[in-house]
Design a protein that fits this description.
elongated, mainly alpha, 2 domains, HTH_TetR, 200 residues, 9 helices, HTH-type_Tx_Regulator, Tetracycline Repressor, domain 2, Arc Repressor Mutant, subunit A
Length: 200
Amino acid sequence: MHIPQDVRRQTTKRKIVDAAVSLLSTSDYHQITSKDIAREAGISTGSFYTYFDNKKDILVEILKEYVLNAHISPDEPVPVQTNSLPGTELLLRTIVKRCFALHDFPPGFSKNILMVSLSDPDVQRIYGEYEIAMIGDIQKVVRSRIPNMGQSRLEAASIVIYSAVKGSIHSIKFNQPSIDETVLVDELITLLQSYFNSFS
């Protein structure tokens, strides 16, 4: 069966990206070469350069997709109260679930992203865009529940909430504590609910 060229190209590009994620999950970013990624993907080094200029190009592409997925569409409704969960708790769980899902990389890969973002301006900029997107979404959620909150306090509260979620994610991803992730998330929700209730 004939496979269209654009489908073949997309398949090959995906193989390269998946190979890079696999290698970056087990090896230091600075020790991996484009040749290593091509070998892992099962293609020639020349084919690699048809799709990417270097390994940083791949990392940037992955992060751009990461940032794109972080944005909530302006038309996406804010979750409303259900019979099983109070509205505030549902909103907080939505935020936490979204943040955790967007960090669903192997621990080694997450560490590489963080380390490269500290030294590379391009990666740092994209990583910063992701954080801005998440804080913006949190502001949208807080504003939906407390419409009269001043802008300055709204921004500060959103940063505090994001920082608490980010810290919990880093604890799970980087420190790999023995505590179950579900228990940690439940405690995080309890903490955020108390903070949220203090706005009243």
